[in-house]
Amino acid sequence: MPSILIVExxxxxxxxxxxxxxxxxxxxxxxxxxxxxxxxxxHSKPDLxxxxxxxxxxxxxxxxxxxxxxxxxxxxxxxxxxxxAMEGDRQRALGAGCDDYDTKPIDLKRLLGKIEAxx
Amino acid sequence: xxxxxxxxxRQELLAPILSIEGYTELLRGSLKDEDFLSDLEKIEKASIQxxxxxxxxxxxxxxxxxxEDRDSQRSKYKHDLRNSVGAxxxxxxIILEDMEDDGAGExxxxxYLNHLVGEANKLLDMxxxxxQSDDIFSEAAGESLxxxxxxxxxxxxxxxxxxxxxxxxxxxxxxxxxSVRNILAHKLKKQxxxxxxxxSGREALxxxxxxxxxxxxLDLFMYDMNGFEVLKEMHKDEDLRSIPVIIITGLxxxxxAVRCIEAGAFDILTKPVNPALLDARVTACLEKKAWRxxxxxxxxxxxxxxALIRQVFGRYMSDEVVKEILEADxxxxxxxxxxxxxxxMTDIRGxxxxxxxxxxEDCVSLLNNYFGTMTPLIQKYGGVINEFLGDAILAIxxxxxxxxxxxxxALACALEMQNGMNDVNQRNREMGxxxxxxxxxxxxxxVVVGNIGSERRQKYGVVGHHVNLTARxxxxxxxxxxxISQYTMEAIETAVKVAQTLEVEAKGIRNPVKIxxxxxxxxxxxxxxxxxxxxLLPLAEPLLMHMRTxxxxxxxxxxxxxxxxxxxxxxxxxxxxxxxxxxxxLRVTIPSFPQxxxxxxxxxxxxxxxxxxxxxxxxxxITSAAQAARDFILSQVVEPSATxx
Lengths: 119, 645
Hints:
The structure holds two protein chains of two kinds.
Chain A: E1 3-7, H1 11-23, E2 27-31, H2 34-44, E3 48-52, H3 60-69, E4 77-82, H4 89-95, E5 100-103, H5 108-118
Helix pairs in contact in A: 2-3
Chain B: H1 2-30, H2 34-62, H3 67-101, H4 108-131, H5 139-144, H6 149-162, E1 170-174, H7 178-190, E2 194-198, H8 201-210, E3 215-219, H9 227-236, H10 238-241, E4 245-249, H11 254-262, E5 267-270, H12 275-314, H13 319-327, E6 337-348, H14 351-357, H15 360-380, E7 383-389, E8 392-397, H16 406-430, E9 438-453, E10 458-463, H17 465-476, E11 481-485, H18 486-491, E12 496-504, E13 513-521, E14 527-528, E15 537-551, E16 554-555, E17 560-568, E18 571-576, E19 585-589, E20 601-612, E21 615-624, H19 627-635, H20 640-643
Parallel strand pairs in B: 1-2, 1-3, 3-4, 4-5, 9-11
Antiparallel strand pairs in B: 6-8, 6-9, 7-8, 9-10, 11-13, 12-13, 13-14, 15-16, 15-17, 15-19, 17-18, 18-21, 19-20, 20-21
């Protein structure tokens, strides 16, 4: 079963997302900030990362860039999640190396479609 | 204008939040699973967050700031609101998914959860739309939300002119959301209503207890005490129960509406409140209340008259009789009518003599004590007191309301009244008043009953020779006796216990009438006289009496000499040389009375006990005597202890 790392500082979002994806059969691990996200991703090599963009310590763009630059983690698919929905968010995310982009609040069906497309 | 628009926008944005709060509250009552409840808590937390963020955001939007600041603030609020509203929708979906996994069918909970998701998404859409305009308070922004701000304001301004005949009232608005309160107050004030406002369920109860409003506009979901609870509390209180309540709710759920109406609400309005609907409901409510107030006023007037009638008549007849008269279709034919009834006359023996001895105050206390005991007994048996005449009572059984068994009822009543004399005397003793005895006569026959008199002065009364006969029978009674005529006896099917039978002649009645001294009546009344047996004791020396017989008011010329040989209570045994008829009334003087006791006394021949040639021994009963006179006679008695030696 594919493994997914959720990097999200908002507790409720993290809780909801992890529970709903576990139910779909994914192997879930979580990180609460960008730095922890990078460490965990390098260590456990998940198949996919759901990366919130506005994260403390190290934001989502920086963390994504770091992961995409390293050989060991380059192949991990990353979907950026943002609640800002500012013009240009999408471009910024893809520019940082994200494989796809989704907005919060999460529409699970839509997100699952994107996950399946990448795995 | 901006502040009013701010209120309207706030209300618009709050509507879905209020719905969310409503549904979570419903779910809190129905969800059982612990896991569900912990998720529900998160939804509640998120909705509180959302409410706070909406307030903050609107404040920020209405303040002056640079475009740059505005963008960064909006970005922050957008982010936070998306998260908090997203949590509402997300957790609701999680519970739904869990329920599906559990194989739970589609029920109310399922429906509420879907509503939660729907309301959350609606709120998100509204926020998205708002953030697309530079000024969220502009008309364009309002239109994009489908809020016709312009028309809301128009209707506010026009309201006064439109009113054809506006009924205004005192309206209490209770909502924990200040903006909702203000909007409603603004609107209703324009219509001329007087407004008070409250911010919680408890405050609502305090305010209505302080001053009862014509209408209570009550929010359904409040934190301290919700609308249902307020309605329930109001229902418990008679003064508050009738206040019309219009429930204001963000809940678009039919069940909640039904529950409110069941709990006693007059009507329901959903948020955001449509001004035209508000107007219509309030007017309808006030109209209905005006009618009901008028109705209640008539009712009160009517009750007042009834109470007065009851008070006046209640002294003479029981509540049931008064009720029957009041409820009779023809208002009771009080005109003259011939009716078969039983007449009761009572009399305190020797009262005229007693009244001379007593001062006025004691006399009144004695009579009040007596009437006070007798009146309820007469009413208990359906009798109507027609008159109090000095110490006498004239009561009738069988009119103005016909009773079939008036004769046995009157008899049972009379016996119970005699027994009631023990209470009367007990109290007399306590008050230092003399003991009294009563005689009762009953007679049954056809009499004319009705209002008799002139136009100016009328009186409900009874006339006819049977009334006179009753008075005549009454004159034969002594204390503690109940005498009934043969006509009453004929009307009684119940077994009665007769102590003696007499024949008397009466004016206007051709043949002698049989009268019976009755001491008991059987089923279903079962009343017997409780009699204290009087012990007669011999006198140390026979006491000489001078007696004259009385016929009516005429006193015979002849003086008869007699001697009292035994005495006890009011009874005595005397011997004399003259034959006397039973029940002969005697006027007696006792020569050996001390100087101070020059009064005469009255007695009645009760029974011939013995006769030897010209010597007759009779039992007599003293019917009237000063207490001192009786005491003197009893003082001549030889006490039992003295004779035993």
